[in-house]
């Protein structure tokens, strides 16, 4: 038997309680049986496990392997710089892991600070009197006292109610407060039952008592929250891309190391020397700076998003949002202000204002009016004016659907009435006009009904306002004078129409999924530009319940789709259907009813101000200002992140070629080794790191939000990126580095075939020139990698001050390596003469000219979509 169908007496008997609640002893016994009235904390990995995970993912394991090999090489053949390499690589792993863990921990702490939904104390009948108890101590059978402004602490059946209105938007999505009574009802769906109140909702008007029948995870709130507690699905493509890239790098690096080990042994080198040489090849192919650069780029994007009121809980979600093709958005509090406002009136303004000022049940506080948001909107619309003392009230109920208040004016008693037009209009015998009060004939009634229909068609909630001087005490609502009609609406946020337009220009569909009334949903959709056509797809929860999955997929093919009166399970189904169509789905919401869909979506975006803690826990991002427009800014940042990762990947991979070529020349040409392993480290974790970070902080480029989202299957690493780095830019850098090496060797008197010991001053000077050549080439490459097609002279490119600072830092680092005793000692370098810095310039200038010519050719050709470039198999 459903509890909503029982009378108050039957409910009390069923839960073995009474009108004055439980005794303290019985409440304690039930607390031990049912448990505390709190939601079960989500299952979390222990902090130690989460910290360990930061150091044991695939790329970190690859670096651990490189560090271990370097340590073994240092033990077997000291003095080659391998010990320093091992220490540096371990430091990279630790710093990156700690940074990633700290970012997630900070976001979690900020989330915890937002989690303040349920009340801490509640008025309850215990031992025959009302007292305050901790909300966590409530048990089934407790009788609680509810008044306007209270948060409901548990699911309860009303025993008595006077004008109780409930804001259930966090549970149902309904924006308008709903009336609750103590009468039995036949509604089967508990959230729609007119005599039940639920944990997490709030009382906006009236007062009453209620019998608690469900607490903690057994509440509607808890039931939906439990849907989000399952196994966490990996949703972010970037993590998969990084893992695939790591595997490719591992295979490439280890494979080349093994090949060159065999070549070295075959060439007659000692096994240990060949082993150390192979480690050098592996190190040259492993971009040690890639992992911290990716992490820091995501973190910097997260910080920029935080300045735009978007809190990122999981760093990879930054990039994932940039690939979103659909945004499934709630309406109430997301697209709208979650605040009722008078949008239209029809009648005599002065008379309407008088009724608005008087006919309400609001209470005044230091911060403003307390009570039903609809009544707050009416009072605010009325503005200042005379208010007469109240002498009585005819309360609102479901049958009358109107409220009347009696007042004493200087001219005598007066009654003010507001309510549904169909219940107020039959009581009116006259209407107010600018010329005065006139009789209300059939023509006048028809005009009022036409105005009502016009407002309703706009999705407005219509109220009729009326009054009467000197009313009959026995029937004060008889013979009223109609003041006019008022249309109210929860208005859209002013920024939302522009945000919707930007999303559409970016190729992102916005689908409204709300629990609100279909007329209201469609009206808001038209107002914000979400619906522009004359025949949109408007699907209600009842219709959705009868749809097959195939039918739903066909509905989602439409360009303009609005879902209204949908439940939590239906919103989840919509998201899953979109994902089956291959869409990358961002889901927004604020209520507990949104939590399952938030978790299922590729990116879940919750509200920070009015959102529930369950919704925030399920989400990947939180809008601290509850503003839908912030999502569009976040999409822009997400798209920029993906482009930036590709930019610094190109920059980092380019330097692999001038790092590998010296080893190839050493083996194949029999020349002195042009570059040592520790000098490779100086590039990967020294001079390259800050410029790569500067590319990672590149602002969104013009046009990023007028392009379609990147295809779901588009890979991070493409053949085009590899070709540009390894086959185009890399060889120029190798030529610059090797050219500098040979010029310095020749100036020192070296002839082909001469042997130079590793510690020979000329060898140290020549390897330093090779290192300097790579750095000089990378300075130019930094400017070239800012864009794939735009010229470095293009003034439309966004300013990035970090580029200039990165170049200064890069030059200072190489100067410290070349011209300071510690740098010479650690990296086996020697001070270069001034002219040695000029030797790589011809190759560098050639690289710039050829790359600029390639970009000019690319700009003259039709733009090839990135998806058209087949990505390498990772």
UniProtKB/TrEMBL annotation:
SMART domains: Cation_ATPase_N. Its main location: membrane. It is found in: Cell membrane. InterPro entries: ATPase_P-typ_cation-transptr_C, ATPase_P-typ_cation-transptr_N, ATPase_P-typ_cyto_dom_N, ATPase_P-typ_P_site, ATPase_P-typ_TM_dom_sf, ATPase_P-typ_transduc_dom_A_sf, ATPase_P-type_domA, Cation_transp_ATPase_P-type. It is a multi-pass membrane protein. Signal peptide: none annotated. Pfam families: Cation_ATPase (PF13246), Cation_ATPase_C (PF00689), Cation_ATPase_N (PF00690), E1-E2_ATPase (PF00122), Hydrolase_3 (PF08282). Keywords: ATP-binding, Cell membrane, Membrane, Nucleotide-binding, Translocase, Transmembrane, Transmembrane helix. The chain crosses the membrane at residues 51-72, 84-102, 242-265, 271-299, 648-671, 677-695, 716-745, 765-784, 802-820, 832-850. Residues 2-75 form the Cation-transporting P-type ATPase N-terminal domain. The keyword Phosphoprotein does not apply. Belongs to the cation transport ATPase (P-type) (TC 3.A.3) family. Type IIA subfamily. PANTHER family: CATION TRANSPORTING ATPASE, SODIUM/POTASSIUM-TRANSPORTING ATPASE SUBUNIT ALPHA. This is Cation-transporting P-type ATPase. The lineage of its organism: Bacteria, Pseudomonadati, Pseudomonadota, Alphaproteobacteria, Rhodospirillales.
